[in-house]
Amino acid sequence: MSDGSVQQRQSQPAVPLLEEQRVGEILAAVPERRHWRYRPRRVGMVWRSRTFRVVAVFTVLAICGLAILALVRDQTGTQGFLVGLGLAVLPVPLLLAAFRWLDRADPGPWRNVLFAFAWGAFAAALVAILANSFATRWIATTIADPSNADTLGATVIAPVVEESAKAAAVLLIFLFRRREFNGIVDGVVIAGVTASGFAFTENILYLGNAFGEDQQIGNSGVVSVTAATFFVRAVMSPFAHPLFTVLTGIGFGLAAACARRRRIRRTVLPLLGLVLAMGMHSLWNGSGVLSPYGFYAVYAVFMVPVFGLVTWLVIWSRRRELRTLAAELPAYAAAGWLSPEEPLALSSMRARGLARDAARRRYAVAARESRYTPYGPGWAPGSPPGAMPGTMPGSMPGVMTGSMPGAVPGVMTGAVPGPSAQAAQAKAAVQAAEAHGKAAARAVAEYESFATSLAALRLQARRGTTGPDFAERELELLHHLWQRREVAAPALTYAAQATGLLRPHRLPPLPYAQQFTPHTQYGAYRNGPAQAQAHAQSPGPGPGYNPYLGQQPPR
To answer: Which pTM value belongs to this model?
Structure first.
């Protein structure tokens, strides 16, 4: 039987095999990727999809939000829920504005802020309500004196559960948004915003229950329980929850500033901050049990000094970030990427704001075809500030070279319009000028943000906390700066002169004795913008060519 099967197989037509020597011809005959009929299966890649992650996070937060709102409404009633919601919203803008003000030197993206607030208001609050309720019932059924269950739950269980739930948001951003988490200020902002969201939901519950109690006993006005609860939670201690969680954020911020090789320190510091947050939270919750005046004693002797100390630490950290710009960016100025005045202007919040305002005024005036310059009379170091290649001095691209973008038909065509048409044309010209000014101010603000990130990246490289993609990140930031340089550099130079930062005794000293050695993969940094422009003007590199790295993409 075996012989017959062999003969049968031999009688079948043979399938041609590809010869290894013809690899080049075979690969050349493969169609482009968009014409492939058979595509490789992306096994396990769904978790790496950004769309999947965004949808998953949004779905989880939405489910938690619906669940927590249903639970709070069930406990407070519809009227109590609406009253609590209206009163709890009042301190939220103050808290968010305070944390964004602390982060204005190098502001993080709004998506991180929104995620942190939503996590605290929905996910952390839901975990806290469910876990605290379960723990209180368990304590009441297992200990000898059930009357102490609420006290033990508030002083022991609640701090552990709530601070752990809020710290999860800081941990997630620390792990998955590591490039946007660089130090103490970032940790404080994310932790504070998360705790603000948690306090918002908790205030709805407390104020709604207080309103229901007033409805039962007939109280109203200043002497009501609702007014007293609002005064204690929203007026006296709106920063209570943020202050607790900020200690956790400081721990993560210190860990972010540590070198990657110090793994023990990067693990211990966040845990230490979490333990301190739990301890302060426990002391705050138990202050009312100590004595009738225990709350006021803890508030005056402990909470206020700690709040002042943390505030000082955050402001000091922000000033240190600004000093980092004055210390790190002169190396790029020496290479030709920045002007010598820009590091000084970028290290001052006042000069930054003045640069944005000056760019807004200058380009708004230029769009209205005026020769006035807001940089002051006689300020012209060599050429009109901000002149664009291919445009008239003092104009934005597309301005004064024909019809203004966004202008109504008939403008600058020689026709004499009527009064109504003239008014419409004047209004359109003003709107176009304002748009040009806003675009220039936005370009300066983006320039300042990218420069701050570049200085932080360079500092991380000196500390050994950057990853292997340092060269690519540095290249990307320099590319963004170069695109906005024509608008931002003159404005920052003017701001440095106007604020008196160019005096000789204010020049920053060299932060280190030896020159920082750049990565070998990045030749554009060593040779400055001249080589970058030469690469950009080189003919025929092919699609995907990087003019800064000077290399062809793999075929």
So the answer is: 0.67
